[in-house]
Design goal:
The complex is a heterodimer.
Chain A (H helix, E strand, L loop, with lengths): L3 E2 L4 E5 L4 E3 L2 E2 L6 E8 L6 E7 L7 E2 L2 E6 L4 E6 L8 E9 L16 E2 L3 E6 L1
Parallel strand pairs in A: 2-12
Antiparallel strand pairs in A: 1-4, 3-9, 5-6, 5-10, 7-8, 8-9, 10-11, 10-12
Chain B lengths: L3 E4 L2 E4 L5 E7 L5 E7 L5 E9 L2 E4 L6 E3 L9 E3 L8 E8 L10 E2 L3 E5 L1
Parallel strand pairs in B: 2-11
Antiparallel strand pairs in B: 1-3, 3-8, 4-5, 4-9, 5-6, 7-8, 9-10, 9-11
Chain lengths: 124, 115
Amino acid sequence: AQKITQTQPGMFVQEKEAVTLDCTYDTSDPSYGLFWYKQPSSGEMIFLIYQGSYDQQNATEGRYSLNFQKARKSANLVISASQLGDSAMYFCAMREGAGRVSNAGGTSYGKLTFGQGTILTVHP
Amino acid sequence: DGGITQSPKYLFRKEGQNVTLSCEQNLNHDAMYWYRQDPGQGLRLIYYSQIVNDFQKGDIAEGYSVSREKKESFPLTVTSAQKNPTAFYLCASRGKAGYSYNEQFFGPGTRLTVL
């Protein structure tokens, strides 16, 4: 089953307008983290914003905010005042658990599951 | 400057050949990861390592191998057993295990093409 679902293959927005990129997730673990990354055409992955499952408030980072609705298992990214440089692929990702121990004795922190991505195009 | 470097940026391989992708980080991070990305798709985890001399298979480890002899380095070998190796490969690292949420930092990626 898909753990992270991004249902919008592509989105268009006018420069200076706001846009919402959808992300829903599936987990039975009470402790998890949700991340959004931006991938420009160069291929690098740029971290944008994080939301923890126990965080009481929605995360914000500059023009990025995360609309976290825990009961609906959604973590939508809102970009305000879109800029031409925002045109890129955007990925939602989830990290489950907090301290599962692997067979080798290390902890399983850090494994991310990614969605399929949404291509955002900002028009002038 | 601190960061993650991957080399080469572009790599061409003939069918049946093994090839090794380099990943180095000077962030003093404990954990390192290898992901594969196919066109228009998300990232899939190949292997990860939480500490030196330890690594774990990810979701698509078949046809790949890794080593973690040094904290700074986590090379990925794409073997001839990998049936469809043409893809974009991304290496990532993350800070000290035990922090609650710190993000993964990614390298610039290596684009592998099998001729």
